[in-house]
Amino acid sequence: MSLLSSHIQTSAAEVVKDLFEVEITPETLPVQDTRKDFEGDLTIVVFPLTKFKLGAPPQIAEKLGSALVERLESVTAYNVVKGFLNLSIGDAYWQSFVAEQQNDPDFFATNLGEGQTVVVEYCSPNTNKPLHLGHLRNIVLGYSLTQILQANGFNAIPTCLFNDRGTNISKSMHAYLSSENKETPDSSSRKGDKIVGDYYVKFAGMIEEESKLIMATEGISKDEAAKKAPSQLAINEMTIRWEEGDAEIRALWEQMNAWVYAAYEDTFQRLGISFDRYFYESEVYKRGKETVQEGLEKGAFYHTEDGSVEVDLTAEGMDRKTLLRSNGTSLYITQDLAIAEDKYNEYKMDRSIYVVGNEQDYHFQVLFKVLAKLEKPYAQGLYHMSYGMVDLPSGKMKSREGTTVEIDDLLTELESKAREETLKNLDKLQDMEEAELNALFQKLGTGAVKYFLAKVDPKKRMMFDPKESVSLKGNTGPYIQYAYARIQSIRRNADHIGPYSADLNLEEPLLEAERTLIQVISRYKDVLREAGENYNPALLANYAYELTKEFNRFYRDAPILKSSNPHTSSFRLALASFAGETLKNCMALLGIQMPERM
Ligand code: ARG
User: Fold this and answer.
1) pTM here?
2) Is residue 402 scored above 70 in pLDDT?
């Protein structure tokens, strides 16, 4: 709720006490934005007062309204519709709002999370392939969430887990060892993650061929045959040898992972993200077994007949879940037991958030239940920020089949799409230097995809439409970026216009477009808080869109540089700048940079 709304709420409670001798808490009376078809800006709902038998709602509202107009400078008029008291907020209030808040750095922050530490884990790839579009949605959400939490006063720590060991990477290693011409980043000058990813795809092909042969000769099903395929047996053995610390396997593993990390670093830089801490599955997976041991001792887990360790979650509506295999090898969940513990030991966080796709919903339900059963002090603060899959107009993505869209390629494609679209529509770019143009299209292309991914409710499955994303019209990143650049251009041409302060008399009443723009700006803090409370970056993205639309209306209706009154010019310039700063701050939380000119 905005400062003004809560001020009005508090005053209304005081008035109720003075007029009716009834004590209520301010929250008793909801304050909301007045509906479009009624006169006024804010509406107090007085129905909750009926239980005190003070008369009919319209009469109560009437008395409350006239008292508020008398007491509050900001409230200039009121009208009553049944139990709704509509209040008009005067120009003076909105003008002083602009004068006072325009340069206040606190305007873009809240203290919602003061004193609280949150560990956010996001991105967390398997190191056997390049990062793809699915990771990009994860990165956009994880990065934004971290920024949003920080802007809300939390100490938010971005971390990333690398699933760097196990069957997947063994597949790439095996295909590499089996190939005659061994491709390396040096030999081919392709990025290391692509090379490793291609070997991973190649492995799938090897298995396919081998199992066909076995099927034909032994007459068994494809699945059965795949289990017997020589390449499958080879990677099973390789994974065990890796665990035993076999020097040769370890060296190859180190090398291939190093290629991948170097490539990832490049992609991270391009996206403007970085992490405070990396976790590596290879470093923790053994310690997960200690947590399993602890659970056995506490009686929370048990051994099955075949010797594996299980937890029984049937009472919680889940099933029996294996935590450690009978041969002692660990599972995906085993490592998570150790990492959860490590995070707490290092950060003593109040909350720990995992940004991971919704195909792992069940995994995290189980993980969190298991940690609760172990009575871990951090168990209550665990949260899975689950998000839906991203589809492309061309269909679903599968990394095993090599049909994914890699982030690197996608960014390059979007930059060129942004170039095409923008040059087509904006003639004035003709005089820009090539270097500046490149920087601009990099901002627009990257901004386009980040924005497109951020604006959708994280829970929803979505379709990414590259063409739509770079459009200068509609709910897109470039549409918002363009408005920002336009504001900066106005500022550059406004040397003759003085600063705005509350004592400047505007003579004319505010235009509808001015007033609405200020109102939208004034909601920024509420949106920021709500995004932080609900872990929802989409709220900020859609807010930025709304603000941009309002700014464009204002730009059309209210001449800034050509206004007849110098005070009005100062006011409008200040308002435009304020809108620009709000857009810039808002988009920065989504990882989107704004161009100074375009
Ligand atoms: N590497 C996993 C994957 O790509 C995601 C890891 C998520 N984080 C976790 N702590 N389990 O599916």
Assistant:
1) 0.94
2) no
